[in-house]
Amino acid sequence: MLCHFLQGGRQKIWEKIGLKSEGYTPQVAAEVRGERVKTARHGENVKTQKEIRQEKAQHDRTVDEVADAYFEAKGPKMKGRGAQIDRYRFDKHVSPILGKRPASSLSRLDLARIEQGMKSLSTASIWGALEILRRILNHGGQHGLCPPLPFKIKLPKKNNEVTEYLEPDDLQRLLQVLDSWPSQDVARMLRLSMYTGMRRGEVFALKDADVDFQQGFIALRGVDERGPKGGVTAYVPMSDTVRQIIVDQLEWRDEKHLGSPYVFPGKGGRLRFDCTAVYRIKKAAKLPKSFRMFHGLRHHFAVTLANSGEVSLDMIGELLTHKDTKTNRRYAKFLPDTKKEAANRAAEMLEKQAKAETSARRDKNSVKADS
Fold first, then answer.
1. What residues contact residue 44 under an 8 Å CB cut-off, 6+ apart?
2. Neighbouring C-beta atoms of residue 165, cutoff 10 Å
């Protein structure tokens, strides 16, 4: 059954409304035609159902299409191993299940299907797959590629309490390898991370303007897409050892990449996004397979401070530029001596308080007896 209407008073357009077997009658067609004519007479553009469907499709693309747009838009910022893992997780675990589906058709059941397909993998891997899907769909919603999801993607709880640190023998082997490594700029990057607790992205993004030799601090600026978490400028103190590392690196940088604003520049003096040499250093130093170089050295920095018993957890959090003090709790287990001292002190105070109360009670009873 067809319904025709006029657009602009001149052009006649035919449009399919529906089948008679579906309950569409000439009366229904006439009502639709009346609405179309009314809209046209008020100067509005009248769209057919086909045009409406095509327009809707542009704003409700498939998950694969939204993902392609996301990775293309984020391209310059997504170089390196982390970006490769994101793309791999999407292609391997998300696309085969949801890739051809319109984003608007997704439900919580679809997310459960992804988790079920990854049940043999770690919680962190499942978390990563759902997280990249969440970022892709958020990007699509923000740029009109798909409607926002009507529900929140619930990410499984992953164990973030893994605290890596080097045993004395591991540390000794690493330092020996760093001393003799041909590319000393890479060795200096790792030393800077170990002596400051700076994140990998913060080391890569460090610029001359961020280093204040006079005041003795390093600024980690949130304006850079590779900067500190939280998007706010943070500051870490510069020890004499760290100062010398940066001085030596700037001398090397000015010989190799004069004019680059980055302390540890990548190819052509540009912002570095990865450093494969650290994996070769890890292998040469025979470090544990599970040890992540930059992240592990950051933890080692914190564990060393905690083991000393001279630095509080709050101060460790300040040095690591943690925004949430709860994150510092993972280092509490490395405070055995400090905890023991605190427990002994608490026992002394409680014992003293108990003795004082007993003595006061005796004195009171003695006064009653005398009276």
1. none
2. 19
Coil, strand or helix at 145: coil
Q: What pLDDT is stored for residue 355 in this prediction?
A: 75
Please give the single-letter amino acid code of residue 6.
L
Residue 59 contacts residue 147 (beta carbons within 8 Å): yes
DSSP state of 14: E
- Taking a C-beta distance cutoff of 8 angstroms, is the pair 212, 219 a contact? yes
Distance CA 181, CA 225 (A): 30
Q: What is the DSSP letter of 238?
A: -
- Residues present in the chain in total: 371
- Count CB neighbours of 41 within 10 A: 13
Tell which wins on pLDDT, 185 or 159. 185
d(CA 190, CA 203) in angstroms, rounded, equals 9
User: What gap in Å lies between CA 103 and CA 7, rounded to an integer?
Assistant: 33
Q: What is the DSSP string of 146-203?
A: SPPPSSPPPPPP----------HHHHHHHHHHHHH-S-HHHHHHHHHHHHH---HHHH
Of 68, 78, 83, the residue nearest 225 (C-alpha): 78
Confirm if 177 and 284 have CB atoms less than 8 A apart. Answer: yes
Beta bridge partners of 16: 2
Q: What is the largest CA-CA distance in the chain?
A: 119
Token pair of 12, please? 């006649």
Whole-number CA gyration radius for the chain? 32
Is the pLDDT at 197 greater than 80? The verdict is yes
Cβ-based burial of 157 (10 A; exposed 0-12, middle 13-18, buried ≥19): exposed
Question: What predicted TM-score, i.e. pTM, was given to this entire model?
Answer: 0.56
* β-bridge pairing 211-212 and 2-7: unpaired
Provide the pairing of β-strand 11-16 with 234-237.
unpaired
Instruction: Spell out the alpha helix ranges (H) of 181-292.
Output: 184-196, 200-205, 240-256, 277-284
Q: How confident is the model at residue 92 (pLDDT cuts 50, 70, 90)?
A: very high
| CB-CB neighbours of 115 under 10 Å | 16
